[in-house]
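Journal club prep — side note

Before the paper discussion, L.F. wants everyone to see what a predicted structure for a comparable chain looks like in token form. Sequence:
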Amino acid sequence: MKKNNELPPLVPNYTTSRIETALEIAAKRQYFTLVFGETGRGKTLTAEYWSRKHKEAVLIGLKSAQNVAGLVRELAEAVLGQDYQSTQKNKSELCEFLKSNERLIIIDEANQLLLSPNPRTVAKSLEFLRRDIYDLTHTPVVMIFTSIKYSEFRHGRMASFMEQFRRRVNYNLEIPSRIMVNSDILPILTAYTEKPSDKLLNAACAIASAGDGKIGTLVKYLDLAREYIAAKGGTFTPELLISLRDRHEGGGDWPEN
């Protein structure tokens, strides 16, 4: 059983390396950076591993829709270690600290900031990040979005406001929805079994390409397959991988009577 602070293993592939590069560029160049990608592509896990290796990184993950007060509170707790129970006090303490302390702010699930039906609520949150955090304290910011594309910043309901926000963006990474077999799948498979067959590669690609879990789902079934092989013997086969997927997602077979 994993401890509460223990992360699942991160198996590097081309996509995770691109995410790491985006984080490194943001930290080195003090950039405002946006990362876009579907769920299950390793964005969160890569950011967690990267932030644990870099003491200047502060990572927050937004769990639900947030207004500016909620965002400021989350950042105060993460950066300063406390919530001053006042949005204005949290803002002022954050800015004073960040002016003299080097940090990289990483906001995972930043799409939660865009969920308010009131454009002014969304604008206040983004203005706080743009003006107070980035412009005034020169603190680099990385915002990680799930199931949102950069085009929505150009043509969405707040396109006119976003134009000013976009000017601050020095670098953005948009992970393609298409999973790349040789760049994404093969490096993961070779971490579990030496020289995977074409059939195993095809089975792994089918699992990763279906549903919402993507690469995360594939890794889950590869971990289960490794546990099964350790207990029962055998090798990694496409049949084992597919049977585990069917068993967990299909609910299993039940006898007639």
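L.F.'s comment for the group: The chain has a mean pLDDT of 89. Keep this in mind when we get to the figures.
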